Every structure is written in structure tokens, then in C-alpha cells.
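ok so for the tutorial part 2 we go from a plain amino acid sequence to predicted C-alpha cells. step 1 is just haveing the sequence, like this:
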Amino acid sequence: MNTTLLPTQPSTTSTVPPHSPRRTDLREVLFPVELRALHFLDEKDRPVVLDTHRAVINSETGQHLGVVGAGYRLVTNEEALKFGHQCASELFGAANSNLEIFNIHVPERPNFCRIDLIHKGYEVNVFRQEVYLPFLRLTNSYNASRALRFDIGYCRKLCLNGVIFESEVIEFRFPHSRVRIPETLDFKLGKERMETVRKEFGARAERLLSHELDASTAVPLFFKALELPLPKSPDDLIARGEELFEPLKLDAELRVQKYAEEMGANAYALFNAVTDFASRPPSLRDFRRSQHSMQTQAGCWLREFDVMLQANPKPDLAKYLDEYGSVGQWN
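step 2 — the prediction. this is what the C-alpha cells look like for a chain of 331 residues:
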């Protein structure tokens, strides 16, 4: 079996983009916030309190973070983190001392955040060689754009490539309302499902490892797995190929080659290339996909591809790829 899927690129472009630094400083998100009344001026320029909405403000800097309705339940990031520790403790059986901050995702205006909590004592082993660790991703917002939610994922211990398992597995979601978010949350229903997730993930990864891939299908499958944008036709490359498609294709080729050389030309190596891209996407001007959405997409593809392999160990990949099958034809 030939494990080199693609020709080596010139030295100026033959390296996968470097790992982006992880953020673990909680001071970026654990600042005090408060709700303040909103006012408007009536026809006589008199201030009138707006009863239907309030502003969320950073109490230290006065920075405006969002406008929310009167029924909004403010959950501080500190409170969300406490809920996250509780959730991880019940799902993984982990004491708080065994949890650590894996990564923090926060925009320049910190009106929402995602915090990943990792537990190093709840491993999944693939063929007794690969080690994965579970993590809990909590999401919270100060502008009602995102519900308070807790998603389960796994990351490869060696390189921290992450994948999120969303709707099919465990998801606790609480819209920011006084009715939906009480003072205490119940995560007990997810504990039994967590053990099932652990076994399913290991079994799926091993089935992918056993499935050899032809070199001509690896990069098209990469595009299919992440639903990356395609030109409308080969002629469309003239208009936008250099700006988006060609850089994405080159990036995919480099990552696919890297993992094929490390693990062999199989679907598991491709899965790792996909999660690498999802966890550390390239910086391209016209490419706007969040890490969370792509890690979730990677989890969906793992399930989808594994289900197909179980139904037919030698599937018709040309039919499965559909329009993505032509990726290799566009140069």
C-alpha cells in the first residue's frame, strides 16, 4: 500500500500551517458584568426608562456587551464555568482537581465565549496506539446570540485535534430566560450516554483505520467531510479560484499527505487531517467558518462515513462524493 497520497510540494509551501496558540487565561472572560437600564428621550427631551430591554455592561471598563430583553437571565461566565465543572464531573466522574482549561474562545468584543474543559483520566484508545481525551465545551453569551450550552467532544492527545459530537450524543442547551435557566442545573441524564459515546467513538475510529483510501479520493473526501466551498464550475476558478478554492485545496493536500505519511492511506488518517483543519483552520480572507462549526461537522462526518462503511465495506465513493468528486480535476 502506497502511503504517500500526494506529491511533495516545494519547500516554500510544504508545511502545514503552524498550530495556533491555545488561550487559557480566564481573566479574558471572568470579568464582572451587570444589567443596566436603557433610556430614551421623549418628544420633550425628557429621559424615559425603556421597560422592555436592558444593557449588559462590563462593570470594570463600562464596555457595552449587548442589549437583552426584560426576561433575560444573566449568567456570568464565572457561573457558566461552575455549571461546566458540575457537568464534567457528572459525565466523566471527574473531581474538579482532575479538570483543566483546555482552550478559551473569545472574540475581540467579549460578548460570548466558549471554554473547553479537558479530563485526562477518561481516555479512549484506538488500536492501543492512539489516545483521545474527552472535553466539555461550554458556551455562554451576554447578548442572547447564543444559548448557555454544553457540548461533548474528544481531542487527540498527541496533537489536540478536536471533534465535537453534538445532536446525536449529548447536548445540554438552556436559552437565556428566567424560566429555562434555574439556579441549579441537572446533568445526570447524560452520564449513561457518555459511556456509550466513549465506546462508539473508539469503534468508529478503528473501522476508519481499517478502510484503505485511494489517493484520488482523499482530498475530495476532505472537502466533502467539511463541506468546503467549491467553484460553480471549472470556469469559475478564473474568478475566485486563487482567492479561496486553490488555497483551500493546497491546504487540504498538505494535511492529507502529512497524516497519510504518519498513519497510512486510510480513512482514519483522513479523519485526523479533517480535525486538524477544523481545530486550526487557515487564515484566508474569504473563508469564514468557526472552529466550533467545523469540529461539529467533523463529528457528523465521522458518524456518516462509519454508517456507510458498516452498510457496505466497499462503498461507491464516486456516488457518495457527488459534486465533490471533481475536486481533483480542478487545477
